[in-house]
Amino acid sequence: MRYLKIFDSTLRDGEQAPGFSMSVNEKLRMAASLEKLGVDVIEAGFPAASPGDLESVRAIAAATNKAVVAALARLNKNDIDLAHDAIAGSAKGRIHVFIATSDIHLKYKLHMTREELLAAVREYVAYAASKCADIEFSAEDATRSDLDFLIEVLKTARQAGAGILNIPDTVGYAVPEDMRRIIKAVRSVPELKDVPLSVHCHNDLGMAVANSLAAVKLGVDQVECTCNGIGERAGNAALEEIVMNLKVRPAYYGADTHIDTTRIMKTSRLLTMLTGVKVQPNKAIIGDNAFAHEAGIHQHGILENRETYEIMTPESVGRTESQIVLGKHSGRHAFEEKLLSMGYNVPPERLDALFADFKTLADKKKTVDDKDIEALLKNVMSEIPETFKLDRYIINSSNMLSSTCSVRLLKHGKKTPEGSSMGVGPIEAAFNAINIATGVKATLSEYRIEAVTGGIDAQGAVSVRIKAGDNAYKGYGVDPNIFEASVKAYINAINNMLYQTAKHSDDTENTKDE
Ligand code: KIV
Ligand code: ZN
Question: Most exposed of 65, 220, 379, 387 (fewest Cβ within 10 Å)?
């Protein structure tokens, strides 16, 4: 059985998709989880894209020991220098350089001739290789490129020092036969016969996993993918689907990975918790319904023998509900046991707050299950200081009058003057009142609410995005009362805004001092 390398791009291709941005600390948590999951390469970001990206790649490079940490760079000196700087602290760093090779990109995006592009590949891959021993070269839009030219480019990149060549289906246009044709053609070139190959497929037509697996079947060495399949537009190939295909069909693929499949669910849930973006219920492997058997005939089969309708066990991907059921009589010991059984090692300084939140929830809700605890954890683990905290609010809403809300907050523990406002509905009234109480001029650009569990007493988890000037900030709140969850989410977004703004001005001050 050969081993396929898993190159995870959750923190780069995934994070750059709208709605999936993460702070440096959030990315660090995700990277630690990816390393435990067993990915071979963590693509940590694109340092030239923003100072925040540079900072996160640096932090991840310094904190990661086992996995290779890759930094993305366009084929120019500045990007390569920044990528090199970002991975300098890594035990195993990789610079991942890319340039588009299709005629449409050459003409309209790069304004280059094929000869100019070949010269750039020669010069800058060699430059990157002079700085770092591990260079990956990607031919962006490879699947829509002229095959002879693509091969010319790959040969040039190899000669210039690229250790691994990546063939991306950047726009998700390919079918499996295209992937097979391209890989066979590349492999038939004597200079590329043994070069490590990688694929990177997007999901615009829902083919990312199928296209990646067609390449795996032909023996490529690495697959690029993301947790929960997140990524540009319709996303990238989903890591969990690639890995479980190899596990469930070993005789067909003849390949395995170093992934600890029992950590798949935990990693997926962490990503959901950090980004606030839920997985669709029918998503393979990780969706809520992926192992749920509703039809009577299926249930009957499952009860007789699970293999009648299950090709893999929920346990094999880490879908285990722990046996400890918590309620209002549960004590701290049982609560801590529960956290450990769920794989969470909560730092002692956060445990008190989490236990207090749990007790408040247990008073309102009959049983507190794993999802409830994860929803509370998201709050407690947040790095955002609670500049403003909810003290009390009153909301009036009916179908006969405008809605009204009065809210009083604590600012650094001290009561603020009450803010009151009207609105078309209770949410608008509440958010206007919070703007008045905080003195912040923010507008709501996104609002999402979800029940954390089933049942009439379920907690509502609210995710908001607010805009202030050109910047957007996310916020999150959870409570069995959905108005309270909304109010908490909006206050959290304002606290986030204050925190990010202060951090940004600190960074500027520090740069001025240098
Ligand atoms: O989709 C793509 O082509 C990419 C490259 C940068 C590898 O993300
Ligand atoms: Zn991509």
Answer: 65
Looking at the fold, whether 75 and 215 belong to one and the same domain comes out as: yes
Largest CA-CA distance found in the chain, in angstroms, rounded: 79
Q: Based on the domain organization, do 264 and 337 belong to the same domain?
A: no
Determine, yes or no, domain membership for 326.
no
User: Count of domains in the chain?
Assistant: 4
200 CA to middle of ligand 1, Å? 7
Q: Ligand 1 pocket test: which of 11, 74, 138 has the largest number of ligand atoms within 8 Å of its C-beta?
A: 138
Nearest Cα residue to atom 8 of ligand 1: 13
Same domain, 31 and 74: yes
Owner of token pair 């523990």:
413
Ligand 1: lining residues by beta carbon, under 6 Å: 13, 98, 138, 140, 166, 168, 170, 200, 202
Confidence band (pLDDT; 50, 70, 90) for 513? very low
Say yes or no to pLDDT of 417 above 50: yes
CA of 9, closest atom in ligand 1: 8
pLDDT of residue 512: 41
Per DSSP bridges, beta strands 164-169 and 443-451 are unpaired
Specify whether the CB–CB gap between 430 and 393 falls below 8 A. Answer: yes
322 within some domain:
no
Q: For a substitution probing ligand 1, which of 9, 140, 154, 230 has the most ligand atoms within 8 Å of its CB?
A: 140
Calpha distance 250→323 (Å, rounded): 32
50 in the same domain as 156: yes
Could you tell me the pTM of the whole model? Answer: 0.86
Residue 24 lies in a domain: yes
Whether 400 has a pLDDT exceeding 50, the answer reads yes
